[in-house]
Design a protein that fits this description.
The complex is a heterotrimer of chains A (308), B (441) and C (366). Chain A is mainly α. Chain A has helices spanning 16-23, 29-60, 80-85, 92-123, 129-140, 144-155, 169-194, 198-205, 210-238, 242-247, 256-261, 273-293, 295-304. Chain B has two domains: 54-164 and 325-392, D-Maltodextrin-Binding Protein, domain 2 (3-Layer(aba) Sandwich); 167-324 and 400-439, D-Maltodextrin-Binding Protein, domain 2 (3-Layer(aba) Sandwich), CATH 3.40.190. Chain B has helices at residues 8-15, 21-24, 66-76, 91-103, 120-125, 144-148, 172-177, 187-200, 215-227, 244-258, 271-279, 292-296, 339-349, 352-362, 375-380, 384-392, 403-419, 425-439, and strands at residues 35-36, 54-58, 82-86, 112-116, 151-152, 155-156, 159-164, 167-171, 205-208, 283-288, 309-312, 326-332, 365-366. In chain B, strands 3-2-4-12-7-13 form a six-stranded mixed β-sheet, sandwiched between helices. In chain B, strands 9-10-8-11 form a four-stranded mixed β-sheet. Chain B starts with 7 loop residues before the first helix and ends with a helix. Chain C starts with 23 loop residues before the first helix and ends in a 23-residue tail after the last helix. In chain C, helix 4 crosses helix 7 (185-212), helix 7 (185-212) runs antiparallel to helix 10 (261-267) and helix 9 runs antiparallel to helix 12 (290-314). Among the domains of chain C are: 106-276, MetI-like fold, CATH 1.10.3720; 327-354, no CATH class. Chain C is built from 13 helices and four strands. Classes of the chains: A mainly alpha (308), B alpha/beta (441), C mainly alpha (366). At the A-C interface, helix 2, helix 4, helix 5, helix 6 and helix 7 of A face helix 1, helix 3, helix 4, helix 5 and helix 7 of C.
């Protein structure tokens, strides 16, 4: 921030005090209006984002039989819903475990494949790079339903050449890669590209093989980007519903979002909204903690892809 | 993936430019040729003496009753163990899994199925489940509508296991206060009583039901249509919704919405919101299943009407109305390996003793008639006598092979009327008639 | 992260070096796992889907025995054509009048996409502007803004279902008895609100990142020139934010076109005012009418492809963002023009401008 040149007339040189005064922000009426407006705006954003979530929390803290109440505070407050979530009928513990397994394995596989792919796209020179990039990015644009019908036929063994995969972990994990991988490759290609290529050059001048240069120089530098990508992929898979709902239908193979969608009360007809909301809170809270801890990195990762 | 020889199909795909065409060639499941899906499905060729381990497939067990009961069976039959396969608790997903098992030639290993009453026709017609010979599966002592729901083209395909019928929950305290001693038998009576009570209880609505667009709407709509004397299908399975009797019942429903007898918001109600409204004291009458009884009696503060309500049969146009029949029945898949054990297990499972235990554990309505008079049960479930009458006079939903399309056509028509009660009912039913004729062709 | 500008671009003319020369084989090796997986779970299924969409399986029961005789036939484009034809397709009445269900779903798709994305963009940009002006508390806002994004869509669908119940809190707050969950224009609004709530913050973040790349000196200069706030916004902020925004909006557009969880979770299937190509195809797949289901999902895919193409061509969405790829394309174009020019006997230099690839980047920074 520079002081406007018009202040400097040839006749006077600006004194230290004057410079300090000019550098000090001017707290005039305009400043305060902007400040108040900005605080109001920020408050509006926070309320906008959290108010519906508040309803989820409030609903989860009612009696299980009062899930549809519209009181602003739970009356009477109760934690029964959170106990009910884990009643054996709801099978929620197993579903959480499945979610953890599917999300973690998908994330690891995605990173494994994605790092290699992204690195070669960012650094190597070969024919057809544009086409391959376009294909990878193109696959991330596919509507889930387009893949669902044929995958359903494939995984139910309707095609002789494909084994029956219904209700197996691979049936949940492989299709999840279809959106995890493009996301990963896209993000990491951008990330690798912004690391100066000279780093590898000098490493190789020092006698590293390209593989060593990648492992010892690039990977440590890319760790933050990889980490962000891992979180993004994990969250995307954790929250996925359509694939999980189609290919994991037995009690043993449901993921948490699918299980939540299927909660019923003990009598078959009742939809325990309070318990569903409690489960929703439980599914969301780990993500929220993760998101809050790593928010800067996530935001960076989300935006890095679009800002190459 | 090996590379099978190219077939006509794969060449076709090849012309579409698929690099992987070779890998796809074996996918001709139907082969383009006509394949008879059903080979009679009859009793012929089934060895009812063959015994061994079997599987039992049903929706999610929400009561925790099923596995312990099966454990009991397994203890007594170590060589004919039953393995429980629990599916989703969503009806359409259970159905889907059973169809998938059939389409893949029993790859999931399903033997005994718990079949929703409305799937019977589809499963039977596709040869998914086998005919049960009457001599081996005696149905005496079981409620007739429940048994009828197990038949397709006059052959028994399922064995009645649980049933369900709707009842009219009513606010006995309000009726008493208004000097009404008996619950209404007709819609008109119900409305008259309702208006009288409304005069002293402003803000209360007369009646509620399940009019959200889902299977519950089909049930509710059917009750109005049947209550007026109409029918979806005649005895030969031909659609007959385009009749004066049907129009009378449906018009009564339309008028109930138009006149505010049923509040407009009931068009967004499934079971739970309607129960909530009743429990909050916002309704005088509620059409509901038996499950509501115990919940509305709760004293934990969730129900404002505990001890203040009773149940009766549904009202109709000129007398007691007609409930829609619900429930699940047991069937044996075409690919079952040990039909003898399947038979024994089904008869044991559906026998009076097990049904009683099931009722006590999960409050599911039995199909065995005598249980409804069991003093022990009636003491615990005071609504049983009414429920028995409801089921005994209940009507099944259309037995259509393409039931999912049929029920959607019914829901389309019904929801149109529910949303816009001024709809020309006759024209709407004529439209439904045309659709049903196409669907049941 | 606030200072991401441009990734390090390769120099215009690459010298041969050990890292980038003749590494096609290595690249093939490194990329093969990714391509193999995508091949199995995306490429093959898409072609299977296209194939499936050309067949129809009929399953009418025999009127005498009641037994079904099923046969699968090749019907060509029949599944596509019949679905748009009101003579052969079931007509439904959504908010657009009575029409074939596919047409109705298509209109809903377009409507949701246009309205949701427009609202999300406006709200998102507004959020970004507020956040950029913030003196303090940015951390809280940024954390809050990630909450809607982190809640699984199906869970938020159920949350909104509860909120929009006839006796729910939405009606309680605005003091009405609107039947949001029926099947009407309000249901559409409910879906739009739920979708915008979840994703406007996402666009906000993208836009914020775009904003932060803008040098404050540009604004200072504009202020000195006496530009109004609105002019600053339209002349400086928006154009500089555009690259980030266009990509974000493209991805939002594509995923809104495939919208499924919200209508499914909030309203249920077969509600025609909120029926989309995804939910319709899902219904058909559930009814084991795989042919029509595949046809509708292929239509959705084509729609998505067209929109993506338009975005990239008309709005210049740079989704690939690889300088080298761009350079190769530019070179090809140059050669073509040069050849053309040579054929016309004109000096090739006159097509200039594109000859030098400018590298605007600083070194990548974190």
């Amino acid at each position: 921030m520079s002081t406007p040149g018009t202040q400097l007339t040839p006749a006077y040189s600006t004194s230290q005090d004057e410079v300090a005064a000019l550098n000090k922000p001017v707290r005039d009426a305009r400043f305060w209006v902007t400040a108040v407006l900005s605080v109001l705006g920020m408050a509006a954003i926070v309320i906008y984002c959290l108010l519906p979530f508040y309803w989820m929390i409030v609903s989860s803290l009612r009696l299980p039989t009062m899930g549809m109440s519209n009181d602003f505070l739970p009356n009477p407050p109760s934690t029964e819903n959170f106990i009910a979530v884990f009643s054996p009928v709801n099978n929620f513990g197993r579903a959480l475990l499945n979610s953890v397994i599917v999300s973690s394995v998908t994330t690891v596989l995605t990173l494994l494949f994605g790092i290699l792919g992204a690195y070669s796209l960012a650094r190597l020179r070969f024919r057809g790079k544009g086409v391959i990039l376009a294909i990878i990015i193109g696959t991330s644009m596919f509507p889930g339903i387009t893949l669902l019908v044929p995958l359903l036929k494939m995984f139910t063994g309707s095609y002789g050449w494909f084994p029956n995969w219904m209700n197996t972990y691979q049936a949940l994990i492989l299709p999840s890669l279809s959106f995890g991988l493009p996301l990963c490759v896209w993000n990491l290609t951008a990330y690798f590209r912004q690391l100066p290529v000279e780093l590898e050059h000098s490493a190789m001048v020092d006698g590293c093989t390209p593989a060593q240069a990648f492992r010892q120089i690039i990977m440590p530098l890319a760790a933050p980007g990889v980490f962000t990508t891992a979180i993004l992929v994990f969250i995307a898979v954790w929250n996925e519903f359509m694939i999980a709902n189609t290919f994991g239908t037995t009690k043993a193979m449901m993921t948490a979002p699918v299980a939540v969608n299927q909660f019923t009360g003990s009598l078959g007809f009742n939809t325990p909204f309070g318990t569903i909301m409690a489960a929703g809170v439980l599914i969301t809270v780990p993500l929220l903690i993760m998101v809050l801890l790593f928010q800067r990195r996530i935001i960076g990762g989300l935006t890095a892809g679009s800002l190459k | 993936m090996s590379r099978p020889e190219l077939t006509r199909r794969s060449l076709l795909i090849g012309t579409l430019g698929v690099a992987a065409a070779g890998a796809l060639s074996a996918c001709s499941s139907g082969g383009g040729a006509t394949t008879p899906a059903a080979t009679g499905g009859g009793a012929a060729g089934i060895d009812w003496t063959k015994k061994g381990p079997i599987t039992y497939v049903q929706g999610k067990d929400t009561s925790g009753y099923v596995q312990p009961t099966i454990d009991k069976w397994n203890k007594d039959h170590p060589n004919e163990k039953v393995t429980l396969i629990e599916l989703s608790d969503k009806a359409d997903e259970q159905q889907q899994k059973m169809i998938d098992n059939f389409n893949t030639n029993g790859s999931a290993g399903y033997d005994v199925l718990s079949v929703d009453v409305v799937w019977t026709a589809q499963f039977a017609a596709n040869g998914m489940i086998v005919e049960l010979p009457a001599a081996q599966f005696p149905t005496t002592g079981y409620l007739k509508p429940a048994v009828d729901a197990c038949t397709y083209f006059n052959k028994l395909y399922c064995f009645p296991s649980t049933s369900d019928g709707a009842m009219l929950y009513y606010r006995k305290d309000l009726l008493d206060a208004a000097g009404v001693t008996a619950p209404p038998k007709t819609w008109d009576e119900m409305i008259t009583i309702g208006r009288k009570i409304q005069a002293t209880n402003p803000g209360i609505n007369i009646m509620g039901g399940q009019f959200q667009k889902y299977e519950g709407l089909t049930c509710n709509f059917a009750e109005w249509l049947n209550g007026g004397g109409g029918e979806f299908l005649d005895a030969n399975g031909k659609p007959t919704v385009n009749t004066d009797a049907a129009a009378k019942g449906v018009q009564a429903m339309a008028d109930a919405f138009k006149d505010g007898v049923i509040p407009a918001e009931a068009s967004t109600w499934s079971e739970e919101p309607s129960r909530q409204a009743f429990q909050d004291g916002k309704l005088i009458f509620l059409r509901q299943w038996p499950y509501v009884y115990s919940l509305a009696q709760k004293t934990d503060g969730s129900s404002k009407v505990n001890g203040k309500f009773a149940v009766a049969l549904l009202p109709g146009a000129t007398g007691t109305g007609v409930s829609t029949l619900g429930g699940h029945n047991m069937a044996i898949t075409k690919t079952a390996k040990n039909p003898g054990t399947c038979k024994d297990f089904i008869l044991w499972w559906c026998g009076p003793q097990m049904q009683k235990e099931n009722l006590l554990a999960s409050s599911q309505a039995p199909t065995y008639e005598a249980l409804y008079a069991d003093p022990e049960l009636v003491a615990k479930f005071p609504y049983l006598p009414v429920l028995k009458e409801s089921i005994a006079t209940a009507k099944a939903r259309p037995k259509a092979v393409r039931y999912s399309d049929v029920t959607l056509a019914i829901q389309d028509t019904a929801y149109g009327i529910v949303k816009t009660p001024t709809t020309d009912v006759k024209a709407a039913l004529a439209g439904l008639q045309t659709k049903l004729e196409t669907l049941t062709k | 992260m606030s200072t991401i500008t441009q990734a390090a671009a390769p120099p215009a003319k690459r010298k041969k070096n050990a890292l980038s020369d003749g590494q096609g084989q290595l690249a093939a090796l490194l990329l093969s796992p990714t391509m193999l997986v995508l091949g199995v779970v995306v490429i093959i299924p898409v072609f299977l889907s296209i194939r499936e969409s050309l067949f129809f399986k009929s399953d009418a029961p025999d009127p005498n025995t009641g037994m079904v005789v099923s046969s699968e036939q090749f019907v060509g484009l029949g599944n596509y054509l019949n679905a748009f034809n009101s003579a052969t397709a079931d007509t439904v009445a959504g908010v657009w009048g009575t029409m074939p269900r596919l047409t109705n779903a298509f209109l809903n798709n377009m409507w949701f996409t246009v309205v949701c994305v427009a609202l999300e963009t406006v709200l998102g940009v507004a959020m970004a502007l507020i956040m950029a002006k913030a003196f303090r508390g940015q951390g809280i806002v940024r954390a809050a803004i990630l909450v809607p994004w982190a809640i699984p869509t199906i869970v938020s669908a159920m949350m909104w279902k509860l909120i929009f119940d006839a006796d729910g809190v939405a009606n309680k707050i605005i003091g009405t008895k609107i039947l949001w969950l029926q099947d009407n224009a309000w249901s559409q609004l409910a879906i739009i609100i739920a979708d915008v709530w979840k994703t406007a913050p996402f666009i906000g973040l993208m836009a914020l990142a775009g904003l932060q790349t803008i040098d404050t000196q540009v604004y200072e200069a504009a202020k000195v020139d006496g530009a109004s706030a609105w002019r600053q916004f339209t002349q400086i902020t928006l154009p500089l934010m555009k690259p980030a925004l266009v990509v974000a909006v493209l991805f939002r557009t594509l995923s809104t076109m495939a919208i499924f969880e919200l209508p499914y979770g909030m309203m249920g299937l077969n509600k025609y005012s909120v029926d989309t190509l995804s939910t319709f195809a899902f219904v058909e797949a559930r009814a084991t009418r795989y042919g029509p289901a595949a046809a509708y999902s292929v239509l959705l895919f084509l729609l998505v492809a067209v929109v993506a193409f338009l975005f990239i061509k008309l709005l210049g969405a740079d989704v690939i963002g690889d300088e080298e790829v761009k350079a190769v394309a530019a070179q090809k174009k140059r050669r073509r023009l040069a050849a053309k020019a040579a054929a016309h006997g004109q000096p090739a230099a006159s097509v200039g401008g594109g000859g030098v690839i400018t590298t605007t980047s600083g070194e990548g920074q974190q």
